[in-house]
Amino acid sequence: MSSDFRDWIAAWVAPRDTSGPRPEDLRASHADRERVIAALTDAAADGRLTAVEHEERVEAAYRAQTLGQLAQLTLDLLPPESQPFVMHDKPVMALFRTENRGGRWVVPSKIPVTSFGGNVNIDLRDALLQSNRVVVQLAVMAGTVTLLVPDGVLVTPAPGARVRSFKNQTRPPESPTPPVIELAGFVYGGKVIARCPKPPKRGLFRRQP
Fold this sequence. Notes:
Helix content is 22%, strand content 30%. It is an alpha/beta fold. It has 2 domains: 3-13 and 89-195, no CATH class; 25-82, no CATH class. Helix 2 packs antiparallel against helix 3 (51-63).
């Protein structure tokens, strides 16, 4: 058995990283509460919640201190992929297909990414990082992994990583201690692309009101 194939199998069966706080124990922000309240309001508008239920859940949202407390308020209203935020540490797998992860989601300190002939798109612009250093554990053959990161994040291959094609289109962080996305594992016959959102265009002329 070749070392590459052993690495591939190891990436599939590697245990999940359980270090750090659980996603549901992280403190909720005002923006997280507003996301949940918006979902509750939509549910009341189309009849999924009564006026009394809506009022009770909105009050509970304002009292909620953690993401887990907030998540309970919309579990019976929306499918998992449409929840105001996602709290899971499932590996990202794309086998001859496209797999996306984005929105408001809690990013564990290690993300296993497996792709065989597929495309993986990971959007971290609105994500909540559990750690200032996130390891993207790659097991990619003939696939493409695209990372969309906010400004101020450093994306770099890990020591010993076998990432033969890495296109870094991010802007250099200004902070001396930026959040770090570290690319570990291997990529053969494929590529990794990291980019920042494009800055807004500045027009040469302003239209008169």
